[in-house]
Amino acid sequence: MTKQTGNYSASSIQALEGLEAVRRRPGMYIGSTDVKGLHHLVWEVVDNSIDEHLAGYCTHIRVNILPDNSIQVEDNGRGIPVDMHDKLQKSALEVVMTVLHAGGKFDKDSYKVSGGLHGVGVSCVNALSEYVRVEVRREGRVYMQEYQRGKPLGEVAVIGESSARGTTVRFRPDSEIFETLVYQFDTLGQRLRELSYLNSGLTIYLTDERDGQQREEKYFSEGGLREFVQYIDQGRTPLTEKVIYISGREEQIDVEIALVYNTGFQENLLAYVNNIYTRDGGTHVSGFRRALARVFKQYGDQNGFFSKLKMEISGEDFREGLTGIISVKVPEPQFKGQTKGELGNSEVVGIVSRIVGDALMAYLDQNPKEARRIIDKIILAATARHAARKARELVQRKNVLTGGGLPGKLADCSSKDPGDSELFLVEGDSAGGTAKQGRNRFFQAILPLRGKILNVEKAIEYKIYDNEEIKNLFTALGVHIYEDEEGERRLNLDKLRYHKIVIMCDADVDGSHITTLILTFFYRYMPEIISNGYLYIARPPLYLVRKGKEARYAWNEKERKEIVEALGKGREDSVHIQRYKGLGEMNAEQLWETTMNPETRTLSRVTIEDASSASYYFSILMGDDVPPRREFIETHAVYANIDI
Q1: CATH number listed for the domain at residues 20-219
Q2: Hey, which CATH number is domain 543-598, 3.20.20.140, 1.10.1040.10, 3.40.50.150, 3.30.1490.440?
Q3: Which residues are known to be catalytic?
Q4: Span 206-213, mean pLDDT?
Q5: Domain residue limits, the chain
Q6: Treating both helix axes as pointing N-terminal to C-terminal, what angle do 283-302 and 368-397 enclose, rounded to 10 degrees?
Q7: Which pLDDT tens digit goes with each residue over 270-326?
């Protein structure tokens, strides 16, 4: 080991003051400096306005994307206090904007519950912005202070009078910090729509003022979670007529739940704590599931519905075809980990279980017809689960884990290190053959898929394991599904053979459909593959533009025009343009160079940033109901990948 030279003493210890630490290590505070981190700034500011709504003061929030990609968030809450802070001898506004972990959320008299208590706060937004301007309308006056990269440009000043109240925060993200400064309207809209459902009666406006992109949307929900669960489930066929709505309060914890049953086979459960989506569930979800299983089991036994059933019912059976939204408001939430992905408050289990149990039993007693439909669905789910288990075990007995060998069509790689190995899922034998020739055999494996795989959104589970392409996927990946002690399905990743699984389909309508089918399968049956960051989508080029011996690739129409301008001086008749309708049209060298070579390719990692939107889109695009899908396609046709 080579020792580093230099004196390690007290002078080596850096104590970063103020917001300097945020600028030095932004990823520690907002997760990343990519597009996700960029949007995180908006959520921090909006969270403050939402907290004002939860406190009973704010009814309207306006979010504007300004022409220079700055963001302005305006609310009609109480306005950030501006009087002198006793301890720091600064305006409370300046303290909130420049001191980490400062704000009214730590005072129970100011905010009973808060979504931003564990967030990084508006002071981090200030630190990571080139410029911030805050206006406060409070007590008949308008106050203002400006900041540059977290530092005040002057004292808090009175700039006018107003009978209105509220806060307006305008910020321009710092180009020295972020990889991109371009905000995405749809990303902002999805989260703001979700917030409107979670906070009934709150009106949120989103306006885009950028040149050529002007649009405005309004998000408002009178029905709250009732409307939210119907929005998520609109692509499926309902089993019951009305939404089952549950609400209650115990020990200062508010519980609100909306659920519906459909004729499908998937469980879609979204859980929130103080408006924060808890990806990994937690004690509120445990309490809900415990009550659901207990009440339906008790109701079924009391009425003799399960007497002829020759198999044991699992907790999973009670939730097949269930779409539910759980929202709890907890005064002092304890989250596990930094990502707020799982609620840890133990007292919440019993509270949610009692509230749900009482309300659900009352619903079943008062709605016997709907109750019987759900019970029949549960019995069918139990029967199908046992059939699926047998089919799954049959597939897994034959796979590589038990010496059954790999699929015949799989061209495996030489490397046995999953961290180095890549599996390309390729559409058809023709493209598969080209990919096999063009790949690096040491670390790249190819599995051709014949045609369109089964749509798992509409298929009963045991039929899924009869599908040859899905069997091949399980076998090639080396994973297997098992049931844990609570009867929950889990995916064992211990034997996963590739840590990079790449969907590589044609850049046309059929290719997009096949990609969506594969994504649906992973989302529903192998979500751990996605959550661990193992799933990717390849981006093959759409065009080859050639003039003489010079050739360039274009991945979209804009790039094609730029290449034509560069090579042909804008004249398309002076260059040769080849439109790739399929991967099979490329030779092996071209496919390697554009789509498979780690040095030159572009891969998109599949992530689930917004669970409610993911459930909605899979339901719309892959579900039973045709009218919502037609409406969605007509609305979004301008964005579709259609080869005319």
Answers
A1: 3.30.565.10
A2: 3.30.1490.440
A3: 427, 506, 508, 510
A4: 95
A5: 20-219, 225-383, 398-540, 543-598
A6: 110
A7: 999 999 888 888 999 999 999 999 999 999 999 999 888 877 888 888 999 999 999
